[in-house]
Amino acid sequence: MSFKNLKISKPILRAIANAGYDNPTLVQEKTIPLVLAKKDIIVSAQTGTGKTAAFALPILQTLIDQQDTPKKGKTIKALIVSPTRELAIQIEENFKIYSKHTNLTTAVVYGGASIEPQKAILKKGVDILIATPGRLLDLHKQDNINLDYIETLVLDEADLMLDMGFIDDVRKIERLCTKQKQILLFSATIPHKVEQLANSILNSPERIEVAQNASTSKNVAQLLYYVPKKDKIELCLHLLRNTIKGNIIIFRRTKFGVDKLEQTLLKNNYKADSIHGAKSQIARQDALAKFKKGDVNILIATDVAARGIDIDNLDAVINFDLPNVPETYVHRIGRTARAGNTGVAHAFCSADEKDYLKTIQQLIGLQLNSIEDHPYPLDPKAKPIIHKSPKTGSKHKKGRKSVASKKKKKRWY
């Protein structure tokens, strides 16, 4: 099937051809006709499947079809709500690429940046707005955004949006839009809380699932290293010196862990940068730009900061900390081996992460290939050390501080 078969007009076809797209991906093939038919939809698809174009192209096509109708002036017709600044910026870039040969206008608003330039852009009027929830509501509260003419509302990365605590904001945004609207919900996974949200705001939605959430690409070699937690940094350095080359993303669970690993790599003369939620928007964009240009080849990130970011030509992923949500593992390693390329995913597992590993392997239906020949092996019998609190007698795993001790000293891991 070609994009022509999906009733996409010539200006958009020209733009996507210039961008190097020949045929629609599976998610685009399934989604575009339903969006053009004005159906509400729930789409379960991982990053890298082409889901942004799956909603962007039919939204643009619908707006082009309406241009012969009487003008109401420049009012926002399509609103895309995104959980992170990076993803919002990326979506705006895609819309601008696809609408290059039209007179449709797009804007993006997000927190962590000056609000005044965003107000000025909105005052001129735009057709399509991409926004993070907090900044969108701030601008609406200040009467800088009119949502009365929204025809299509897109909730992108809905599972992450809810994980980040935006559920109330999302519901408020939905209520602020006109009742007669189409809602498109996209999510990497569809947990119960996403299902509840969809049932409460969507109207008889069509469901699209592209590949199983548990699937991992056959082009990704998945390697496992059992290693004591205290030796993870040394193992990482050993692998970077001897095994892992090219463009690499390293995932850590916390921003403190990200910062510590970045400092260690820089001290060892590696070209590295990092992104996490505590960094300014400028710093995060600068880190991504340097990684994409090749000024650095190692990017260290938390899952929230990296979610949805499109990075090409990624050679390896290192799961420095195993995620406690198994679907996150699938999402992480799906960033390599795209477009038919091959890649390698490395997973570090300490004694207290064995339960996480078990659920990951159950989800993907695969036993990871354990690499035993490395300098920092974990004793197979090793278990998290348990000790009793002197005051309460309650049990705690070693390495997990009480709330009181956290106030005294920040943890890096």
Description:
With 413 residues, the chain is of the alpha/beta class. The protein folds into 2 domains: 3-209, P-loop containing nucleotide triphosphate hydrolases (Rossmann fold, 3-Layer(aba) Sandwich), CATH 3.40.50; 220-370, Rossmann fold (3-Layer(aba) Sandwich), CATH 3.40.50.300. 39% of the residues lie in helices and 16% in strands. It is built from 16 helices and 16 strands. The strands form 3 sheets. A 7-stranded parallel beta sheet has the order 3-4-2-5-6-1-7, with helices on both faces. It has a 7-stranded parallel beta sheet with strand order 10-11-9-12-13-8-14, sandwiched between helices. The model is unreliable at 389-413 (pLDDT under 50).
Strands, helices and their partners?
Blueprint lengths: L9 H9 L7 H11 L4 E4 L6 H15 L12 E4 L3 H14 L7 E4 L5 H10 L3 E4 L1 H9 L10 E4 L2 H6 L3 H10 L5 E6 L4 H10 L4 E4 L10 E7 L5 H11 L5 E4 L3 H13 L4 E4 L5 H13 L4 E4 L1 H4 L9 E4 L6 H8 L9 E7 L4 H11 L4 E2 L15 E3 L6 E3 L5 H6 L5
Parallel strand pairs: 1-6, 1-7, 2-4, 2-5, 3-4, 5-6, 8-13, 8-14, 9-11, 9-12, 10-11, 12-13
Antiparallel strand pairs: 15-16
Helix pairs in contact: 2-3, 3-4, 14-15
Protein traits:
single chain, 413 residues, alpha/beta, Rossmann fold, 2 domains, seven-stranded parallel β-sheet, disordered C terminus
